[in-house]
Amino acid sequence: MSCAFSLLESCHLPCSRYLSTTFRFSRGWYQMQRPIKHKTLCLCRNMQTFACELVKASYVPTPQTKPKDQSLAKVETIGAFQKLPMVMPSVDIFQSASRKAKRVLPTKGIANVAKRERNRGAKQLDALMKELAVPLRGYIENFPKRIYLHPYERSLIELTFGAGNYEEVLKKVDALRKKVVSVGKEHASLCAKSLSKKEAEERLTEGLEKLQEIFKCEGQAIDDLLYIAKTLRAMPVVDLEMPTLCLVGAPNVGKSSLVRLLSTGKPEVTDTPGLLKRCDEDRNNLEKLTLAVLSHLPTAILYVHDLSGQCGMSPSDQFMIYKEISERFGNHLWLDVISKCDLLKESPVVFITEDREVDHLELVKYRKIGPEGALHVSVKNEDGIDKLKKKVHELLMAQMERIKSKRIQDNIEVA
């Protein structure tokens, strides 16, 4: 079943304007063994909407560790996906290599027909082997190892392709390269030892067919790598130096509507699931990616609550999610917002599944007014929106100062 999901909305503040980004995941264009597809849905002046589908995959949060030496300093940078090499389809690699190998001529000055033919055959097999192996070696060397990636990018790889699949594809490509080199050298040697022109021609044909068979049977690894490169290059790039506001909350609480008001852009936004009440092991990939963003990126949090009963999730369940997230990410700069305040009644909304006689004082208070100090806003009549914009501006400026301070501290530690 295909559907689009809004992962998070984030507002960037370059100078005095807002830049908002919405991630959405849906079906796209590319199709491989694990059909995951990605396309850009919307691009406007100050806001972008991205879409791709994530397959079911395990997720193990990667702890952040500081590099032990300067050679690992690139662990803390981001943007490696945009530097991935262009990968050719396996069929194109073989056809190109075959054309170049066939143009190889025997060494000049060999008068003996048999010697000339075995020289030509050995040189062509050697050329074909090299034309196939060299690009594969380039892929292996230029696709980064996960250990050198930023933790956020590591999370994207694991959530998109599954645990260990990225490394497995690279391992298969390298295995193919080694087999091509081994078989190519073997048959070039046999061709060079031929006793007649006919035998040399047969050895050459045999070697060419063997290399073609290997590439046909195991070339799928290259095509898988091509798909991985396309998918990763299409991933949204996050600027670690830019203060980012991440809108978090339960499904349908009004995050997308607030993004429209906080941003100068007018994107196509889909009202879709946010964080649900469940343990990490049971969360879907969209929820896991939200947590990965909060865990690994320098974001401030705008947490959106809906106490009107319109979002489909009870205030009690929202409270439980809120407590979990606030405890896990309490070190982030934080702003609470109660949305749809025009729909709030004097008495709090209590779902039929909730305990009306609950004696949890904090929960009772939450049902009535939400977290202490939360802003009450209404997108419909724009109540509280001006105040919200001011608070968001202050929050992002504070986030900018945090980023600068951390950069200075990191430079001191490196020095």
UniProtKB/TrEMBL annotation:
Keywords, ordered alphabetically: GTP-binding, Nucleotide-binding
Sample GO molecular function, one term: GTP binding
Superkingdom assignment: Eukaryota
A family per Pfam: NOG1_N
Protein's recorded name: OBG-type G domain-containing protein
Lineage: Eukaryota, Viridiplantae, Streptophyta, Embryophyta, Tracheophyta
InterPro entries found in the cross-reference section: GTP-bd, NOG1_N, NOG1_Rossman_fold_dom, P-loop_NTPase
Domain Nucleolar GTP-binding protein 1 Rossman-fold: from-to ranges: 286-342
G domain boundaries: 245-274
Keyword Nucleotide-binding appears in the UniProt entry: yes
Every NOG1 N-terminal helical domain range: 81-239
